[in-house]
């Protein structure tokens, strides 16, 4: 067999390996990573015997251990961090990357000069509090939400006083 024939036969293997390597790397990354949208949560199953969780940056994600070996991963801020699950002896059982992304579905972003406003459009657009919104929009939306929540709570308490528990 000549050198040229060997190269010609090896060429398809090189092409296959070049195509397959990124796919294998993506699968390996997917097994050791989780993506979550800011202000939302995902459930994950942990290996057995986890006793300690360490979160790299708790401003980006919160990870809470639940009964039955489950964790709740909550997106708190945009960016990437990780969490490490350890057993009682300090052995690392799992090291998982967490990517927190912004909402994209049914979200409309309006810029008024440099100030950003976010709206959730399902199908009518309503104010939505999103990290990065302009301070005036952000604080007025929070104030309205707090006012509404207070009124609902007071109304429910008055009803309970009047009618008693159901």
- What is the overall number of helices? 2
**Overall mean pLDDT score?**
83
Please estimate the helix content: 25-40%
Low-confidence stretches: 13-31
Text of the CATH class of the largest domain: Mainly Beta
Order of helices and strands: HEEEEEEEEEEH
The CATH topology assignment of the largest domain is Immunoglobulin-like
Structural class: alpha+beta
Q: Using only CA atoms, what is the Rg?
A: 25 Å
Distance between the termini: 89 Å
Strand order of the biggest β-sheet: 1-7-6-3
Approximate shape: flat
Q: What count of domains describes the coordinates?
A: 2
Written overview of the protein:
The chain has 2 domains: 33-101, Immunoglobulin-like, CATH 2.60.40.1080; 107-158, no CATH class. The protein is built from 2 helices and 10 strands. It has helices at residues 3-31, 135-163, and strands spanning 33-37, 41-45, 52-55, 61-66, 70-75, 79-86, 92-101, 107-112, 115-121, 125-127. Residues 13-31 have low confidence and may be disordered.
Write the layout of secondary structure elements.
Elements: H1 3-31, E1 33-37, E2 41-45, E3 52-55, E4 61-66, E5 70-75, E6 79-86, E7 92-101, E8 107-112, E9 115-121, E10 125-127, H2 135-163
Parallel strand pairs: 1-7
Antiparallel strand pairs: 2-5, 3-6, 4-5, 6-7, 8-9, 9-10
Task: State the gist of this model.
The protein is of the alpha+beta class. The protein has helices at 3-31, 135-163; strands at 33-37, 41-45, 52-55, 61-66, 70-75, 79-86, 92-101, 107-112, 115-121, 125-127.
